[in-house]
Design goal:
Number of helices: 5
Radius of gyration: 16 Å
Helix content: 55-70%
Order of helices and strands: HHHHH
Distance between the termini: 27 Å
Number of strands: 0
Strand content: under 5%
């Protein structure tokens, strides 16, 4: 397989896990305090966040430079955010979902690495 094909397979896997995790409620980033504001506030906020991430992943699929930078910024923000929230471990989702989530953390790193390394980096280059 070519590197661009592998990159797109990684993006498809990430989108698939994103949707599965959100629909089944396995997202470990859901914060309980936010649900106290309004019954639908948490649902709307998480739907907006998932949609935004979906748009960024679609931008990566079409090799948009803005999507690559937003994806890296979102990952950096996620790392900073995780430092301030307690680790909830296996209490929120099934154990295999936690393992899969950590596998997709590695997959996110592979997506970033492939985005900034040749030959995928060259596809992101602006048209001449």
């Amino acid at each position: 397989m070519r590197a661009v094909s592998v990159y797109r397979v990684l993006l498809l896997a990430r989108v698939g896990w994103l949707l599965l995790e959100w629909f089944l409620g396995w997202d470990a980033r859901r914060h309980v305090n936010f649900t106290l504001l309004h019954p639908y506030a948490s649902l709307c906020a998480h739907a907006a966040a998932e949609f935004t991430l979906f748009v960024v992943l679609a931008g990566l699929w079409f090799f948009r430079r803005w999507a690559r930078l937003i994806f890296v910024f979102a990952l950096a923000l996620s790392v900073v955010d995780s430092a301030f929230w307690p680790y909830r471990g296996l209490s929120l989702s099934p154990s295999f979902a936690v393992v899969m989530s950590w596998c997709f953390v590695v997959l996110n790193g592979a997506i970033v690495a492939m985005s900034f390394l040749p030959p995928v980096r060259d596809v992101f280059a602006p048209p001449a």
